[in-house]
Amino acid sequence: MAECPFSSMLKPVSELALADCQRRLGLAMSARQEGVSLSVMLSRRERQALDAAPDGILLVERDGKMVTANAAMLAISGYERDELEGRMLDMLLPPEFQAGHGQYLNSYFSRPSRRPMGLGGVLWLQRKQGNAVPVDIALGYFGDDDKGLAIAFVRDVTELHQMQQRLKFQATKDTLTGLNNRWQFGQELQEQLKLAQAGGEALALLQLDLDNFKAINDGYGHAAGDQLLREVARRLKSQLRSEGTLARLGGDEFMVLLVGENATRARFWSEQILAALSIPFRHDGLALDFGASVGIALYPDNAQTGDDLMRFADMAMYSAKAQGRGHAVFFEPGMGKEMAERVQLAERLRMALSYGGLQLHYQPQVKVEGATVVAVEALLRWHDPLLGNVSPARFIPVAEASGQIVALGNYVLDAACKQIALWLKAGTPLRVAVNLSAYQLRQVNLVEQVRSCLQRYQVPPQWLELEVTESQAMINPDQGCEVLQGLARLGVTIALDDFGTGHSSLAYLQYLPLQRVKLGREFLFPSPSRDRLMGGIVHMAHALDLEVVAEGVEEADQLQLLRDIGCEFFQGWLHSRAMPAEQVRDWLAA
Q1: pLDDT tens per residue, range 244-289
Q2: Are residues 136 and 261 in the same domain?
Q3: pLDDT for 460-491, tens place per residue?
Q4: What b-and-e string marks burial along 421-437, b requiring 16 or more CB atoms within 10 Å of the CB?
Q5: Does 577 share its domain with 452?
Q6: Which of 218, 281, 499, 542 is the most exposed place for a label (fewest CB within 10 A)?
Q7: How far is CA 124 from CA 72, 140, 157, 451, in A?
Q8: Cα separation of 549 and 368, whole Å?
Q9: Separation between Cα atoms, residue 578 and residue 1, nearest integer Å
Q10: Which tens digits make up the pLDDT trace of 11-59?
């Protein structure tokens, strides 16, 4: 047994206490030597003195027979005094400790000594009721011959033991889910690596990162996020049972260590896990969609050390994230380079936000009939001195992963309002459409930020349009509706981007303060039902008094389709690519 860390908190039984007991009991020893029971010979006063002791006191003969016990000892053991006196000490020991106790008792009586509390760690005493309680014991001996007695001071340390267990749990377990924490998982990983190296076994390390967790946590509150994390832990334990070691590293990241598993089996388990986590999460009567991305690293194929295994699994997980939700990816050597590039990209983006390098380009939105420009959409572009032109497809995911997406959105909003003011001053007013990210939509002060930006540049609100996607608006419908209504009250135009590609309830859309919807380019791809489908969507939007803008129009036959179904506006390469602000005025004048 490990030494009890609370031994310093236990007040030891002093030499004075042992001496006092010896003095009180010594008077009865001569009678005992004549065959008279020691328990009988104790006077009422001496019995009261023993019973007043806060710790249990137990007198034991050389053969293990109990002579007497005080009131505290009776309370600890659950027995009456006559049930202990004359009985063997073994009855107070848990079964697993009884076999070797006789040898220990003989050893003690052969060389009796005094032992204070706190030296032997936690011992266990079997109560009459059948349960065992943790105790600490001090030992003493009195008597001048082979008829001497051992005196045991017994202290119930249940509360201290429970405190020790709580501290141990907090040190090794994740308090939210009950899974191993990062430290404990690292210890077990090192131990399994040693065993695998000795036995020639394989290990598979799976790192999981939840998809859509931040949206749920921010949109529905931390209580919902905590509930989801506990549900994930429950599903993982149910799926794996005793097949793997589980841990929560922190946030929404989990680890699974599988022993004796090759790549094929690791793939199998990752697919089982992804399937288990693809089932929507129920919260307050709502079915919230989430999932996971999994990175897999193998011993000995990929790495020889625990640190490398965890690092490589992390790289593979980020690669899985980049492929979209619900993927499992094995580590490959080239991922180290990809990770370094992502780190570099995040740092260069941080510099661009601070020192410049970002720029807005504007793509016109025009009438289907007459090609009159009615607005422009602001699209972010980034040219880095070291990296060159960086596509939004590359830097937007990095901005999300590195926590810079809100700052990026704030930059776009500020730059767009500034440009609107310049065009107004030049006498060429244009409404500018700005995309709001899901992260911005969850900002509690978004309405105030937009109001402040409009006031800073003295921009009338009707010249600003804010676009949100269906999926963003539906993350938390009530909150999304409240925020959009607050923005609409400012006087800005609200547009729903990628209309028809999300999972929104059509009945719910009537409560959103929308003026426009934008059809994604997916609807323009040729298909047998394309014309009827787009016609139906446009008709439904018009029934809700919404204007319709088609995106991604690149061919003349697509434009003709828009005319045929009554779509009012479009944007796309057929009319114009996005261009810097300084080119927009010249383009309009041409």
Answers
A1: 899 999 889 999 999 988 888 899 999 999 999 999 888 888 788 8
A2: no
A3: 999 999 999 877 776 677 778 889 999 999 99
A4: bebbeeeeebbbbbbbb
A5: yes
A6: 542
A7: 16, 19, 10, 69
A8: 9
A9: 73
A10: 444 555 555 555 555 545 554 444 445 555 566 776 777 888 889 999 9
